[in-house]
Amino acid sequence: MMKSLFLILLLFLFCLSCKKQESTTVKQATPAPAQNDTSYHFPKLATPANYFAKDISVYDSVDQADYNAQVFLSKLSALKIFNDAMTRSISKYIRNEQSYVEPYDGQSYTTAYTLVLKPVAFYENNQFISATHVVDTYSAGGNHHNYRWFTFNYDKSQKRALSFTDVFEIKTTKDSLSFVALLNRHNTGSCKVWSLPLGHIDFSFTQSGISFNPNSLTCWGEHAVVSVDSCSRFMRKCYQ
User: Fold this and answer.
1) Which residues contact residue 119 at a Cβ distance below 8 angstroms, ignoring those fewer than 6 apart?
2) Most exposed: 92, 138, 175, 195, by fewest CB within 10 Å?
């Protein structure tokens, strides 16, 4: 009798140990996200009609740096030049980023630096294409991720990429002050810090006008959306 009770007790303890081990395994297979995760949570942006998503990836084994970009390219042969210009622009952006990344210091990181670039807004009309991206960068061991805007603007009639100075013409210090004041009046937040020189301001064409996207750390995520009529005095004549 005692031997039977002893065997039952051993069997009971064995079952408990199996359940405990099973629970631990499940927990390890589906770990909870880290409380201090600051990576950018990219929205699910639908691929525009007549476009397809393309991934551009570069891994730098010397710097232990991983660069991953996603862009929308057109299926239409009439926009082949747009596709080429967009691809060159992203590749140039990655190369420029590589030039600033410090050499790998030999610490035990699988990846010392990451860059993720993905589209978050896309606008197209008869004249322009604006593809706005968020750039998420992170250095291993850092306290948080950093974000930037990168918009690729394209003139469909001239078949070329557009920079800030291609569209806007700000000649004097007085013009600069007036332009910044205009942005401050239309800003969605409280940002008063804009990229200088002004040619570094990220901008995109939208249904409502032109969106100016500050890249300063204190203002990131805010926008100043200004109608074309309101900022026409600062634009080159061909875009007024």
Assistant:
1) 45, 70, 71, 72, 131, 132, 133
2) 92
